[in-house]
Amino acid sequence: MPSTRYKRILLKLSGEALMGDQGYGIDHAVLDKITSEVKEVYNLGVEVAIVIGGGNIFRGLSAAAKGMERASADYMGMLATVLNALALQNILENKGVVTRVQSAIEMRELAETYIRRRAVRHLEKRRVVIFAAGTGNPYFTTDTAAALRAMEIGAEVIMKATKVDGVYSADPVKDKTATKFDHLTYIEVLQKNLRVMDATAISLCMDNSLPIIVFNLNTDGNIKRIVLGETVGTLVTGRNNA
Q: Torsion angle, CA of 65/198/136/139, rounded to 10 degrees?
């Protein structure tokens, strides 16, 4: 078995990643691909935690912009993440990967309530832990939840899955002159307003020296490459050199 650079990772998946080319919901082909890649690194002995978003089903911020009360809209978004977490759990367990879903909002019939020490124990016992319902509080994104959970469980890195191969100076889909960054500091991300993750999440990572790797989820094998120490995507740390 090859040696791995990271022993415990937190994978941040957006809800939009699950819907593929569909406009809504879950694309089961995409879900199958993601879970296969998670199983691959799990089989390498890596402890895997996942934070999942809910934007493929409901976006609280968008709903608030259209007139809904922000707190209510955010709670609805949290419930959407639980749906995605249960779907992810089901497919992973069909592939023979033992999982636990922990929710920041208590719903005992569906998931465990989040308890940090229990989550760590699950990881130690070789279970993939899927964190749902964000932080359990409105006004906080699942990016912030990812940063918070990663620090609580002692993850060595946050792997932020996107649809592009790293962080660019502008949207590479809209601006063909956009340049890709191989490495950034937290301060550069904030100063350049690069939207790697929201400012609260970046600040949490900066205060605790937690590296972030932004990579393309659509490229087969990227999760394994990162775990094995290959240079993939954009690395965000507190130093000027990776």
A: -40
Helices (H), the chain: 15-18, 28-42, 60-65, 70-94, 116-124, 142-153, 186-191, 199-207, 222-227
Q: Determine the Cα–Cα distance for residues 122 and 97; give it in Å rounded to an integer.
A: 12
In terms of pTM, does the model score above 0.85? yes
Amino acid residing at 194: L
> Could you tell me the residue ranges of all domains in the chain?
8-237
User: pLDDT tens, 36-65?
Assistant: 999 999 999 999 999 999 989 987 667 666
CA dist 110 and 59 (Å) reads 22
The yes or no reply on domain 8-237 and CATH 1.10.15.40 is no
Question: Could you tell me the CA-to-CA distances from 190 to 79, 162, 178, 194, 201 in Å, in that order?
Answer: 29, 19, 18, 7, 11
* Number of C-beta neighbours around residue 49 at 10 A: 28
How far is the C-alpha of 70 from the C-alpha of 68, rounded, in Å?
6
Backbone phi and psi for residue 158, each to the nearest 5 degrees, phi listed first = -100, 125
d(CA 217, CA 53): 15
Are the beta carbons of 93 and 35 closer than 8 angstroms?
no
What is the C-alpha to C-alpha distance for residues 34 and 27, in angstroms, rounded to an integer? 11
Q: How far apart are CA 18 and CA 24, in angstroms?
A: 9
Round to whole Å and give the CA distance between 23 and 26: 9
